[in-house]
Design brief:
The structure is a homodimer of 339-residue chains. Chain A has 11 helices and 12 strands. The first copy, chain A, has 339 residues and is α/β, with parallel strands linked by helices. Chain A folds into 3 domains: 39 residues, no CATH class; 130 residues, Rossmann fold (3-Layer(aba) Sandwich); 138 residues, Rossmann fold, CATH 3.40.50.2300. A 6-stranded parallel sheet of chain A has the order 2-1-3-4-5-11, sandwiched between helices. In chain A, strands 7-6-8-9-10-12 form a 6-stranded mixed sheet, sandwiched between helices. At the A-B interface, helix 4, strand 2, helix 5 and helix 10 of A face helix 4, strand 2, helix 5 and helix 10 of B.
C-alpha cells in the first residue's frame, strides 16, 4: 500500500492543501489546534512528505546554504569558516553558492534553493540587490534567511553586521589627524546598506571638520577589476589628486597600491590609505596597510548561531533583530604621517 | 493511477532491480540491447525516477558539486571561479563543499552527496586522503568525479593538475642559481601526490647539483597554523639555519615571512624564499614574493569542461586521463641574490 500524499492527506482532513502544507511548516498563519490535528493525522496515515517540497520542517535536511558574492575575498572566506564551525557542531552540512555580484544569478540561486532541501539560508547580497522581491518570495516558502554583512533592511529577519557607520567615521578621522586635507572615498556600488553607512561616516566626519565633500571624490567602483583600475588611475593622475584614500573594500585598496606603483606615487608620503580589510598579508605589504578589520569569523559564527537557535525549535519565522559586532582599527604605515 | 516505481519496473521487465538501475544509469556493465529494452519499458510505463535515487542521468539536476579543502586560499577560489564560468555557460548550479582538510568530513560530504541530486563532482582531496574507498564507493553510485590539483591516482577518471615535478625542479634550480647552499622544503603533509611530486623535483635537483638532502630540511607542516609557525620558527632559529626555503603552498610562505619578521631575519639577504602561490598581493609584499604561479582559473575551467563533455553525452563513466597545465615562474625580490 502506497503512503498518502499531501493531496490525499488534505482531503481526509477536509482542509485545503495550502492549509495542510502551512500547518506542516509550522506557519504562524495557522492556529495551534489545526496544526495539532494535521500533525496527528499525518502521523496516523504515515504521511511521508515529498522530499522536494520545501520547508517541511519535520523532515530536516540537516543542510544550510550560504549565498555570498565571492570567495576570492578574505572577509567572506573567514565568515564561511565561522559558519562551518557552528554547522559542524550541529551536525549540519553547508552548501556554498556564489552570486559573483550578479543579481540575476542570485535570483536563480534562490529559485534553485526553493526546490532543494535546505533548512535555512545565510546570505550576503550582491552589490546590486536593490529590489528584494526574490528574497521575500523565498521567505514565503517557509525557509528562513539570516543576513550577514550585506543585509536587506526591508526583509524581516536577523541581520548581523559590523559598526559600519562608526568605522567610517573612525577611518576618516584617522586620515584627518594624519594631516589629510582632501580625502577620496572608494565605494563598491551604492545600492547596499553597508556602503551607504560607510560613506555616511566619511561624509559626517568631513562635515564635522569643515571639509568640503566634493562629489568627484566619491568614486563608484564595481565588479569589473579593470574598470576599477582605470577609475583609481584617473583619480590619482595629475596634480589635483587626493592626499588620502578611504577604500570601502579590500580589493579597492589592492588596486590603489597597484596604481600607485604604476604611477610612482609614494604611500604614505603622497597619498595615505586606509581600508576595510581582512587581508592576511596586510602587515607584510610594502608599505604595511592600515585596516578596519571586521570580526569576519565571528560575524559568520553569530549568523549561524542565530539560525540554529530557530531551527532547533522548528521555527521558520525569525523576527527582526540587528546584531552589530565591532570592527577594529589597525593603524600601520600606509596611513601615517611621516614626521 | 500511481506511476510504477523501480521495483515494479524491474518485475515487469523480469530483471533484477540492480540491472534496471544500472541500465538507467547507462552503466558499462549492461549491454546495449538490455539498456534499450529497459529505457523503452520505462518510457511506456511512465516511470518517474525517485529524485533522491542517485545517478539517474535521465533526470538531470543541473547541479554539480565542488569539494575542496578550503576557500581562504587564492588557488581554490580562483579554480572555483573557473568552474563557475563553465557551469554558468551550461546553465548549471554549483554547490561548494569545504572539507577543511578533514578526511572524516570529506567522507561525510561524499555520503551526503550520494543522496543529493548532483550530476557530477569536481574535487581536490584533503591533505590526509590516503585511503580512497569512500571515493571509489561514490563512483559506484553512478555519479562521475573529476579531480583537479589534489588528485587520487588510484581512482579511474580525468585528473587536471599542473606540472608539479618540473616546477619543483625549476624552483630549486632557481634558488641554487642564486647561491643557496642549504635549501629547506616546507611540505603540507606527505600523503597527497602533488606534494610528493613537488618534493621529488626538489630532491632531484639537489641530487643533480651534488647537494646533500638532509632529512631535517624537509619540514612536514599541516593544517594547524600555530604548529606550522612553530615548525618554521624552529627551522629558522639559531646559526644552523637554511639559506633558502621552497614552500610547497602559499600559506607556508606567509608563515615564513611572519617568522622572519619576528626573528629579524632579512629576506632575501639571509634567507631566500620561493613558493607555489596565487597570492594577488605577491608583488606588493615587502619584499615582493617569488612564486610558481599555477593556472588556477584554467585548471578549474578545464576540470569543468571535461565533466560537461561527459554529462552532455549522458555518460557517467569518465576514462582515465591526465591533463597537465603549465605553471609559471615569477621571479621577484624574495629569491634573488643581491649583488
Amino acid at each position: 500500500m502506497a503512503a498518502v500524499n499531501l493531496k490525499q492527506l488534505a482531503k481526509i482532513l477536509n482542509l485545503s492543501i495550502s492549509t495542510v502544507s502551512k500547518a506542516l511548516r509550522d506557519s504562524h498563519e495557522i492556529g495551534d489546534a489545526t496544526k495539532e490535528r494535521v500533525l496527528a493525522k499525518a502521523k496516523e496515515m504515515d504521511y511521508t512528505p515529498n522530499p522536494f517540497a520545501s520547508g517541511l520542517r519535520r523532515n530536516k535536511s540537516k543542510t544550510i546554504a550560504v549565498v555570498v558574492p565571492e570567495v576570492a575575498n578574505n572577509y567572506f572566506s573567514l565568515a564561511i569558516n565561522g559558519i562551518e564551525r557552528i554547522a559542524q557542531e550541529n551536525d549540519y552540512h553547508v552548501l556554498i553558492y556564489l552570486t559573483h555580484e550578479d543579481i540575476e544569478k542570485e535570483k536563480g540561486i534562490m529559485k534553485h534553493l526553493e526546490n532543494k532541501r535546505v533548512d535555512g539560508v545565510l546570505m550576503s547580497v550582491t552589490m546590486n540587490t536593490s529590489n528584494q522581491t526574490h528574497l521575500s518570495d523565498f521567505q514565503q516558502k517557509g525557509i528562513p534567511i539570516v543576513f550577514f554583512d550585506r543585509i536587506c533592511n526591508e526583509i524581516e529577519t536577523a541581520k548581523i553586521t559590523t559598526d559600519d557607520y562608526i568605522s567610517g567615521i573612525n577611518a576618516t578621522k584617522h586620515l584627518i589627524e594624519n594631516n589629510c586635507k582632501d580625502i577620496a572615498f572608494l565605494s563598491l556600488g551604492d545600492e547596499i546598506s553597508i556602503m551607504q553607512k560607510r560613506k555616511s561616516g566619511y561624509l559626517e566626519e568631513l562635515h564635522k571638520n569643515n571639509m568640503e565633500a566634493k562629489p568627484e571624490r566619491i568614486v563608484k567602483c564595481g565588479n569589473d577589476d579593470e574598470m576599477n583600475y582605470q577609475l583609481v588611475k584617473e583619480l590619482l593622475t595629475g596634480k589635483n589628486k587626493p592626499d588620502g584614500i578611504f577604500a570601502s573594500v579590500e580589493k579597492l585598496a589592492i588596486t590603489t597600491y597597484q596604481v600607485c606603483r604604476e604611477l610612482n606615487i609614494n604611500i604614505p608620503e603622497e597619498v595615505k590609505i586606509i581600508c576595510f580589510s581582512n587581508l592576511e598579508t596586510a602587515s607584510l605589504l610594502s608599505p604595511s596597510l592600515s585596516t578596519i578589520t571586521q570580526p569576519a569569523y565571528n560575524i559568520g559564527k553569530t549568523a549561524a548561531e542565530v539560525m540554529f537557535k530557530y531551527l532547533d525549535k522548528n521555527k521558520t519565522y525569525i523576527p527582526n533583530e540587528n546584531i552589530v559586532l565591532q570592527s577594529t582599527l589597525h593603524i600601520r604605515e600606509s596611513s601615517q604621517q611621516i614626521v
